[in-house]
Amino acid sequence: MALSGNHEVVVVGSGAGGGMSAYLLTRAGIGVVLVEAGRDYNPFTETPMFNTSHEAPLLGFRTPDKDFGFYNAGVGGGWEIPGEPYSTGEDSDFRWYRTRVLGGRTNHWGRNSFRMGPLDFKPRSRDGLGVDWPIGYEDLEPYYDRTEALIGVYGSNDGLTNSPDSGPGILHKPPRPRIAELMIKSVAESMGMPCVPMRRAVLTRPMDARAACFYATACGRGCSIGAAFQSTTSLIPWAKATGRLEMLTDAMVYGVDTDERGRASGINYIDKGSGEHRHIPARAVVLAASTGETARILLNSASGRHPDGLANASGQVGRNLMDTVGAGMAAQIPSLENRPRYNEDGAMGGHVYIPFWLYDEQDAGRLDFPRGYHYEVGGGFREPGYGIDYIPFIVDGYGRSLKEDARRYYGSVLRFGQRGEMIPNDGCYAEIDPGIKDRFGIPVLRFHYRHTEHEFRQVAHFQQTTLDLIDRLGGRLLTDVRPPQEAISAGGVIIHEVGTARMGDDPETSVTNGFGQAWEVGNLYLTDGSVFASKAHKNPTLTILALAWRSTENLIERMRRNEI
Q: How far is CA 406 from CA 284, 338, 398, 402, 480, in A?
């Protein structure tokens, strides 16, 4: 595709950060080329919203090329992509999920949207571990408000420690808890654990051309009515409507060029269809390719001026890799057996969650782990399919008795997921593999990853607390209680990886300033999760969107002042 040349900024990546940057730049009157490594994708026509599992191969169960099920909107990507490998260091277990499609992971993410709080931005000041962000909650609060108002988030203001409230009238009304969630809420609150409405980027009232959720289909398939936020039904169409957005898909970016002054002069990419190497000039470059890909592009942009990679004089590009601490348990609850059947789909995902409730105990030194976690819980009548809610492991036999048992246990399983904060450590980083290239000839990433006792002790606390919850619910455990070192999810599995080009207030120890602007390259901005200085237990996408808004606003202001 030939470009018109009527652009000033190249944005690499079309997910949360890239979509937000493209939307804001074009709305400000600035021409943008949005470059995506995956294929074009139209969720309005391609989303299989009403197909049922029995219509799909293997009853919709996952396959090697469809990791999250046959209908999931992770088009063209996965844990392993033919011809696009990555490697891991010895004794490292890290898995890199990539979505090769316009809109990236926003097409199929869980839509859980929690604000980071004041304690999350200054963790080192609180416990002496990791680093503080160069910004505080007060800097991002107005952008959280704007972002939630723009994309649409349901939830409630509960006045909880480090779980900030939203501005008046911003949040949509949350859906009511389902039966299983009401049980969990009752027992959790009897144990001193708050259980409050989930915050999710799902509309429960119409907004602009987007409809309210009608509680009928799985959000991971994508949402053709725009109720569940994804950049392909909001930010990107809005940017296109300005007439200032051009898009390139199937374009694998591998480097950022710089001029004789050391400023970014454009990007280099490979057309995946023809194999041709091409260049796009730009007045400014925004990298939002994802935490891993952004680090890869910077490291592969090494030159005589930047021998260790672009924007890497600090040596921090690729370092400080973090993912959410994850673990899970499940239980069968006899009192939920043989319930009357009715539609309990709801807004998919959870309608309630348990935010971290032990900040005071941590501060008083009564816990043996320094950072928090939250519970994501579920249960109820999900659409039947292969392996639904552990039923194949509960029932036995054949014929009529097998069918009767399946009906008896259907809807009686509760699931408990831990999502916790990881502290950055020197053993977690990505580097360029010296011997492996992808099918385009681009050197690939090699990941190193390890957890520490901080994370293992957090998992142990989750396990014991969950056992107490299950006991009070009168349930029976369906999952093994493994040692925390085995129960913890491998790096990358939660798909919340962040931190490989962190922001800071010192060029010696960080890659960007507090606006995501590279210290060494003044017209290069990073607006994805790579800039995170810490990994709070909160899911990162809402913060990526809010940071991208703040950073892009700064870029626009500097362009207007001709500083770029």
A: 59, 10, 11, 6, 22
Strands 325-332 and 245-248: unpaired
Which pLDDT belongs to residue 217?
85
Side-chain half-sphere exposure of 127, counting CA atoms within 13 A: 22
Q: Tell me: pLDDT of 386 over 70.
A: no
- pLDDT tens-digit readout, 153-163: 999 999 999 99
Q: Per the structure block, which two tokens stand in for 209? A: 């051309």
**Distance, CA of 62 to CA of 55 (rounded, Å):** 14
Rounded to whole angstroms, the Cα distance separating 505 from 410 reads 54
Q: Count of CB atoms within 10 A of residue 276's CB?
A: 9
Max Cα separation, the chain?
78
Q: Which residues contact 93 (CB under 8 A, 6 or more apart)?
A: 449, 490, 491
> Is pTM beyond 0.90 here?
yes
Burial class (CB in 10 A: 0-12, 13-18, 19+), 90: exposed
Residue 75: predicted pLDDT: 83
d(CA 24, CA 463): 43
Helix (H, G, I), strand (E, B) or coil at 333: coil
CA–CA separation, 215 and 237 (whole Å): 24
Query: Which has the closest alpha carbon to 21: 224, 203, 245?
Result: 245
CB 126 within 8 A of CB 162: no
* Whole-angstrom distance, CA of residue 532 vs CA of residue 295: 13
Residue 179 near residue 340, CB atoms below 8 Å: no
Q: Which residue has the tokens 């503080």?
A: 132
HEC letters along 73-108: CCCCCECCECCECCEECCCCCECCCECCECCHHHHC
β-strand partners of 269: 253, 278
**Calpha distance 346→361 (Å, rounded):** 35
Within 25-89, strands assigned E span 32-35, 87-88
- CA atoms 141, 145, 151, 155: torsion sign: positive
Helices (H), strands (E): how many in the chain?
A: 14, 17
> DSSP string spanning 478-531?
-S----HHHHSPPBTTTS--B-TT-B-S-TTT-SB-TTSBBSS-TTEEE-SGGG
Please give the structure tokens belonging to residue 8.
């000033």
- Which residues face 376 on adjacent strands? 353, 417
